[in-house]
Amino acid sequence: MSVLVVTGTGTEVGKTIVTAAVAAAARAAGRSVAVLKPAQTGVAPGEPGDVAEVRRLAGDAVTGEELARFPEPLAPGTAAARAGLSPVRPPEIAEAAARLAESHDLVLVEGAGGLLVRLDEDGATLADAARLLGAPVLLVAQAGLGTLNTTALTAEALDARGLRCAGVVIGSWPAAPDLAMRCNLADLPEAAGAPLLGAVPEGAGALPPEAFRTAALTWLAPELSGAWDAEGFTAAHR
User: Fold this and answer.
1) What is the tens place of the pLDDT at every residue in 76-100?
2) Closest to 16 measured CA to CA, from 43, 42, 54
3) Is residue 112 annotated as involved in ligand binding?
4) What SUPFAM superfamilies does its record include (predicted)?
5) What is the pLDDT of residue 1?
6) CA gap 112, 11 in Å, rounded
7) Residue 76 parent element (H or E)
8) d(Cα 112, Cα 193) in Å, to the nearest integer?
9) Is 110 a known ligand-binding residue?
């Protein structure tokens, strides 16, 4: 896959850290990587956003691009309207991703919030951009109680739009998972209709960048250029 869209079951589920881990693993495999953030919200001009965080963790060799920035921490469409700024629209996202794909082995398009968060006044979403690109979607999910419902709903939304879910990555796996979290390891693939492709430890973003890049390979499955074993991980937490 040359373009991979990264979305979440909601906000604050670990999309940026997962994106950084996927970028780091791909770079370790010798692939050139670009990360595209269509809409950055809640960050003032000049402040580092998600693209800067991905590059900090995965390395400066990762190309970063941000299409639009809106000051208030809201859905992109709402934030753009309140700021009196033009929203970012799916064709613009698809064009930028396709351009980056011409010079990179992998382009990661990181959304804002969940799959169906509105980008503009017409109700366009990240799913529309993924459809224009014909790109698979990597779903970042929470570990605990309630995640099966939001994962299944997102998977249904993808399927209804003819989009392929590449797999699920747990965005924040705690050191001491509770019963629901451990059971979810087996249940998440069924809810998503796609494989479990990784589990990023809670607090991974606080690691020194070099340690993050090395460890990223142990958090992600071979499909994402890592060495993580879903079956073994699940069995170990029964």
Assistant:
1) 999 999 999 999 999 999 999 999 9
2) 54
3) yes
4) P-loop containing nucleoside triphosphate hydrolases
5) 62
6) 7
7) helix 76-83
8) 23
9) yes
